[in-house]
Each structure stands twice: as structure tokens, then as C-alpha cells.
Amino acid sequence: MAFPEQDPLRRGARRFASLREIAVKNLALEPATKFAMGDRMVIELAFECHHEIPEGRFGVLFSNENGIILHDFASGYSGVIGFGVGPHRFRIVTAPIMAYPGCYRLGAWIQHSKGVPSDDYYSQGLRVDLVDDGKVGHRDANFSGIRCSNTEVY
Q1: Is the pLDDT of residue 154 over 80?
Q2: Angle, alpha carbons 73-34-134 (nearest 5°)
Q3: In this predicted structure, what is the pLDDT of residue 150?
């Protein structure tokens, strides 16, 4: 999915960098938007730096339907900091996703240095659906009927 240029959900000056596209795949690197609880996702993010940003950081957001961020895969926590001018592509392989069945969104952000507002931010991008196929929990567990109000994390 390419990030839309004009969208009320997208914010930031895009002075230093711009998000370009986000994709989600299964471990076989096939495009996918439906995963089972406990599956790993492969998230690919592309952005372009208009200037060198030696302290730059980016992240991929995993949010629920209400826009509440459940996880932020932030590059700085992995030591991926600083980017030169030009296009950049990253692949993130998640840990097993332990969220209840439902609809979730992947978004992204990029900032020129820690602690400043994101230069580009889009929280409600690509839709991902999680289903219960018996991979997690006891063999008699059934998560499909659960409607979460306080948490989505299993």
C-alpha cells in the first residue's frame, strides 16, 4: 500500500523524510492480510529521506480498530538510527502476534531525531485481520467469540 499524499489521517511536515509504502507478508514472503493468532508477520516499509538525518528513527504501528496503538516496532530500540539522502527499505519480522481475533491496522512514522514530532506519520494504514485457528492456548480454547473492550492482547 502506498501512503496517500493527501489524507486527514496523515500528518507531519515531511521536510526531512516521507513515508512511501508499507506491505505485510507471511513468512514465505507472500502478500497477506489475514493471519492466525500466534503467526509472525513480515512488514516491509519504504521511505525517502530528503536530507541526511543522522539521528533519524522510524517505526511501524500496530493499532486496534479504535486507533489505539498496541505495539510500536521502533527502529531506535534495535539500534537502527540515522539515514542518508535517498530511498530506504526495511523488513521487520515480528514476534508471534498475540492479539485476539479482529481487525487491526498497520501504520508508520519517521522522525529526524529522538523526542521530536514525527516528520511523517500515518497511523491507520494497511488492514490486517487476525483469526483463531487453534495455534495458541489450550486445545479446547476458542477465541473467535471474544469481544474485547479493555484489551486485545492475549
Answers
A1: no
A2: 100
A3: 47
**Helix, strand, coil share (%) of the chain residues, nearest 5:** 5, 45, 50
Dihedral of alpha carbons 73, 41, 10, 66, sign: negative
Q: What is the 3-class SS of 91-141, one letter each residue?
A: EEECCCCCECCEEEEEEEEEECCCCCCCCEEEEEEEEEEEECCCCCCCCCC
End-to-end C-alpha distance for the chain, whole angstroms: 28
Find residue 109's DSSP bridge partners. 59, 121
pLDDT digits (tens, 9 = 90+) for 101-138: 999 999 999 999 998 999 999 988 899 999 988 776 65
Q: What is the Cα–Cα distance from 64 to 102, expressed in whole angstroms?
A: 8
Q: 146 pLDDT exceeds 60?
A: no
What distance in Å separates the CA atoms of residue 111 and residue 56, rounded to the nearest whole number? 6
